[in-house]
Write a structure and sequence with these properties.
Organism: Mycolicibacterium aichiense
Number of strands: 12
Largest sheet: 7 strands, antiparallel
Keywords: Cell membrane, Lipoprotein, Membrane, Palmitate, Signal
Shape: globular
Distance between the termini: 40 Å
Radius of gyration: 16 Å
Protein name: 19 kDa lipoprotein antigen LpqH-like protein
Strand content: over 45%
Strand order of the largest sheet: 1-4-5-6-7-8-9
Length: about 160
């Protein structure tokens, strides 16, 4: 049980770290680094209609105005801020036809829930549909119930819709 909880928290932490790092140089679009690396294209979107629903209800406490989408190097990162530090969202997807979720982490009612498929250990599930520049991610995230950790894993169905240019 402790291993599953640690993996869930680790996935959430890694997702947030990847997203924080990927937007680090978004103001220098198309520039080369001092090491001679090829220029990278970065696209950041923070406007458009965004919704995050868990079990069919809006995820309360999530600041939808802070949701950003960053496309860079074959990866799409979606991240949010939280109101009062309670709720949060982080998604890392491989850009493709269709995109695939590599990891997803969200905080719901104080519980860290995740979707991942890491070294054969699969947690939760997620599917991605694309309509123009709008990405809709649906699935089920799993994690430990922090109010009753001995009760085992909990899972919540989710739907995330975000515009990413």
């Amino acid at each position: 049980m402790k291993r599953i909880l640690a993996v869930g928290v680790g996935v959430l932490g890694c997702s947030m770290l990847l997203m924080a790092c990927s937007d680090n140089n978004s103001s220098s679009k198309g520039s080369s680094s001092a090491t001679g690396a090829a220029p990278t294209s970065v696209s950041v979107a923070s406007s458009g209609k965004t919704s995050v629903k868990v079990e069919g209800n809006d995820l309360q406490g999530l600041d939808l105005n802070s949701v950003t989408c960053v496309k860079q190097g074959g990866t799409i990162n979606i991240a949010s801020g939280a109101v009062g530090g309670q709720q949060g969202l982080g998604v890392v997807m491989k850009d493709g036809q269709p995109p695939t979720v590599q990891s997803l982490g969200m905080v719901v009612d104080g519980n860290a829930l995740a979707v991942s498929d890491n070294m054969g250990m699969k947690t939760g599930s997620a599917d991605v549909k694309v309509d123009g520049s709008t990405y809709t991610i649906t699935g089920e995230a799993a994690g430990a119930d922090m109010k009753n950790p001995m009760a085992g894993m909990i899972s919540k169905k989710f739907e995330i819709s975000v515009t990413c240019k």
